[in-house]
Amino acid sequence: MSVTAQLKSLSLDNINPHVKEAKYAVRGELAVRSEKYRAQLNKGEKGNLPFDTVISANIGNPQQLDQKPITFFRQVASLLENPLLLEKPEVLKEHLGYKDDVIARAQKLIKDVKSVGAYSQSHGAPAIRQSVADFIERRDGYPSDPEHIYMSGGASSGVNTLLHIICSKPETGILIPIPQYPLYTATLAVLNARCVPYYLEEGKGWGTDLNAIKESLEKAKQEGTDVRAIAVINPGNPTGSTLSPEDITAVLKFAAEEKLVVIADEVYQTNVFAGSFVSFKKGLRDLQKAEPGKYDNVELASLHSISKGMVGECGHRGGYFELVGFDSEVAAEIYKFISIQLCPPVIGQCIVEMMCNPPREGDPSYELYHKEYYGIFEGLKKRAFALYDAFEEMEGVECQPPTGSMYLFPTIHVSPKAVEAAKSEGRTPDEFYVSRLLDATGVCMVPGSGFGQKEGTLHFRTTFLAPGTDWVGRITKFHKEFMDEFR
Ligand SMILES: Cc1ncc(COP(=O)(O)O)c(C=O)c1O
Q: So which cofactors does this thing need (predicted)?
C-alpha cells in the first residue's frame, strides 16, 4: 500500500476501478504538456521552446481557437443574464447596436424560462423543446414531438444518459464505430459494459461497411455479449467524413433486423462540406413511409449540440436528444434519470433555442448573423482544404478529403527506425510522432490510438479550427525533419 493510501480514505487502490480504466486521449498527457508550454510562454519564459505559440489542435473547441461568438446569440444571452438591461432599450439600440429582434427574443425567452437562474423542467423548458421540435420538422420534413425532446448539458450528457439506460449488465454491448470519439468507449468503461467495435472503411471516405458491422455483431454474440445498440457519428469525429444516404439507410435496416437501438451523434450536422446533411431521423421516416409498418419498432436517439457548427458555444453546455420509437415506460425511466441531475444549464437551453431558431431573412439581425455564420463556415472549409492539401504533399501521409466535421484523420507511415525509437520511449509510433510534433512546433494533436484504428495502421487527428496557416507550415517542416531523422 502506498504512503498516501495509509493516510487518506481514498487512494488509487480503492476508488471505482472502472473510472481508472476509462481512457480519454483528447485531454490526455499531450494536452496537459501543451498547457504547460502555454503557461510557460504566457509568463514570458520561453526558454528553449522552439515556438512562440501553442496551437491546441487536439480538441474541437472553436472559441478557444479564436472563432468569434455569433453576435445575435451573445446579445440575447447578455439580456437573459441581466434583464435589467431591458429597461433601457434606447441605450441598447442607439449605443450598443442591439436590434429589435434581439430584444424581442430575450423577452420571449425570459417569458419561457422566467429566469436563467431558475431550474427548468428536467428535460428542458417546454417552449424551448417546442422550438427544437419545429427546427427538426423544418430540417427533415417530418413532424417532431416536443415531449420526445430532452435538452441536455451538451451532447456528452445526452450520450451519458443513453448509455446509462442501455447498459444493464457487464455483458451489455454497444456497437461503436472505430475510429470513434472516445466519449463512447470511456463511458462504456465507466459503466463496466462492452464496446463492440466495428471498423469504418477508410478507403471509402470512412463510410460504414455493413459486412464489417455484421461480423462484429456475430463475434460479440459468440462471446456472450448482449448487443443492444449501435452508435453512429455523422459527420464523423475523428474521421472528418459524412455518411452517404445509402450508408444511413443500410444501418437503419440492419438495426431494424437485429433489434438494435440507433444512437445517432449528429453534433456536426452543419459542418458539412460536400453534399448536404441527412439526419438518421429523416432516413428512418423515409423508410417508414416507403414500407409502412416494417420499421415502426426502430428505436432511434439522435443528438445535437451548440458546441460545434458555426455556433461553437461549447462552454455554455447545451444540446438535446430526440427519441423516436422508444417504449413509454423506458422514456419515463430516462426522464427519472435526468431528473436526478435536476436540469441542464438554462442559458445553454436558450442558446440551443437560438441555434434552432436563428434570425430569418427580413429580421433586423439577419444580415449580420448571415455574414458571421457563412464567414465562419467558409473559413473552416478553406482551412480544411489547406490542411488537406498540405497532408497530400507530405511523404508517407494519406488523407481522405474533408467532407464534414472539424477534423482530419490522416494515415501516417513511419520507418522501422521510428518504430524502434518509439518503443524505446515506451510509446506507440503514432504517440511518438505526435509527442515529437508538440515539442518541436507547439501544435498539439491526438494520436490515432486515442480513437482506435485498425491494427497495423497509424493515424493522427487534428482540428482545422486554428486561425491562419502558419501552423500548417510548422507541421510540414516538422514532418520532413522527422522523416529524415528516422530514414
Ligand atoms: C462526436 C461528438 N459527440 C459529442 C461531443 C460532445 O459535445 P458536447 O460539447 O455537446 O458535449 C463531441 C465533442 O467533441 C463530439 O465530437
A: pyridoxal 5'-phosphate
Is 289 buried (19+), middle (13-18) or exposed (0-12) by CB count in 10 A?
A: exposed
Q: Give pLDDT tens digits for 324-348.
A: 999 999 999 999 999 999 999 999 9
Closest residue by CA, ligand 1 atom 14: 60
Is pTM beyond 0.90? Reply is yes
* H-state helical runs in 172-327: 183-190, 210-222, 245-258, 280-290
Return the best residue to mutate from 157, 267, 465 for the ligand 1 pocket (most ligand atoms within 8 A of CB): 267
- Sign of the Cα torsion 287, 292, 293, 297 reads positive
**pLDDT value of residue 355:** 98
Q: Which amino acid is at 94?
A: E
The set of protein residues with a Cβ atom below 6 angstroms from ligand 1 is 60, 154-156, 181, 183, 233, 237, 265, 267, 305, 307, 314, 319
Ligand 1 mean position, distance from CA 50 (Å): 32
Q: Using most ligand atoms within 8 A of CB, pick from 305, 317, 451 the residue to mutate for ligand 1.
A: 305
What is the residue type of 372? E
Rg of the chain over Cα atoms, rounded to whole angstroms, equals 23
Residue 62: what pLDDT?
87
Ligand 1 nearest atom to the CA of residue 159, by list position: 4
Cell of 113: 424560462
Total residues found in the chain within this entry: 487
Please tell me the distance from the alpha carbon of residue 16 to that of residue 8, in angstroms, as a whole number: 16
**Confidence (pLDDT) at 59:** 87
Predicted local confidence at residue 4, as pLDDT = 59
- Which residue from 184, 307, 464 has its CB within 8 A of the most atoms of ligand 1, so it is best to mutate? 307
| Beta-carbon contacts of residue 236 (< 8 Å; ≥ 6 apart) | 177, 200, 206, 242, 243, 268, 404, 405
> What's the gap in Å between 156 CA and the centre of ligand 1?
6
Counting atoms of ligand 1 from 1, which one is nearest the CA of 319? 10
Mean pLDDT, all residues of the chain: 95
Measured distance CA(19)–CA(431) in Å, rounded: 23
Alpha helix stretches (DSSP H) within 68-182? 71-81, 89-96, 100-113, 126-140, 154-166
